[in-house]
Amino acid sequence: MPMGRVGKVFLIVWAVLMTIIAGGLAGFEAMRFFGKTNLDSKSATSTPMLDQANGAYSVDTAEKWQSDWVRYNGEVYDYNEDIITFLIMGIDKEDEVVKEVKEGADGGQADALFLLVLNPHDESIKIIGINRNTMTDVDIYDEYGRYMTTMIAQIAVQHGFGNGMEESCEYQVKAVSNLFYQLPIHGYAAINMSAIPKINDMVGGVDVTVLEDLTKFDKKLVEGEKIHLEGATAFRYVKCRDTSVFGSSDRRLERQRQYLNAFIKAARNASSENNNAAIQIFTEIRDAMVTNITADEVSYLAPDMINYSFDPTDFMMINGETTRGEFFEEFYVDEDDLFKTIIEVFYEKVNYVD
């Protein structure tokens, strides 16, 4: 079963619906053209600034050298400008409907952060998980929405500033882009955690082996037990953690990775049995989601995703170290691993001779 349907369920779960709407309009091919143009223009940057990173540099005097090339570990790489990258956010809100909030810090934290990367060159999908405790630059705003300062804080708190809607999402996109050396990000989807039970059950539930004891949250979640996650139990498995236990966020992120891989398998089965699965899921969760992806953009993406591949090895994590901060746990990324991941996912080797 190709990953195309699964990608629509997982990343652009609303893709089929929008594509059907777009397909019923005149000038569908024109919409695809404008969709590509819009996606390219949405990112605030055109290429990562890896030349500012240790171990990677782009300074070269040769005439053939291109501005978006970098040298890394003795090889030359070119940024793949055809890659489309989306930021998927799971927001710590249990409201079934996304609501605008007053400016301040009540927009909800991004407890789950994933970059979904579509590469048309090799027709692949990759997912990069980001630890919510990653310490990085976070912009601070006051209760009137005025920028105050930038400080080092957990990346998940960035979404909390703003109005809980598009503004908060844009703040979070900026923080993640900067963490990845100004990586271009072409769109986002922020989904309230309240949608998990609905999404989970609409693919028939998800099978996992429980990675840690979570019986204090749900008696069914016994470590080592094989379980078919349904309803609120799925929500608790993905969302809950014991904050009194050191490294609980790291273990939850590993559970989220396990769950998403299992969800993809379940979504494949559901899609093979029901071609309308993506539409039905979209209908169920649209009120709990904020996204800036439009119909013309999806009309460009969806038809080409049919042949895209994905397997569990394409779900990547950035290595790092968790330490005890003054008040909360802090995760510091391994810069070497971050550089390596960016090169492997977003760049292609160039046959360049000095």
UniProtKB/TrEMBL annotation:
Organism: Butyrivibrio proteoclasticus (strain ATCC 51982 / DSM 14932 / B316)
InterPro entries: LytR/CpsA/Psr_CW_biosynth, LytR_CpsA_psr
Domain (Cell envelope-related transcriptional attenuator): residue spans on this chain: 110-267
Protein family according to the UniProt entry: Belongs to the LytR/CpsA/Psr (LCP) family.
Protein name per UniProt: Cell envelope-related transcriptional attenuator
Pfam family, one: LytR_cpsA_psr
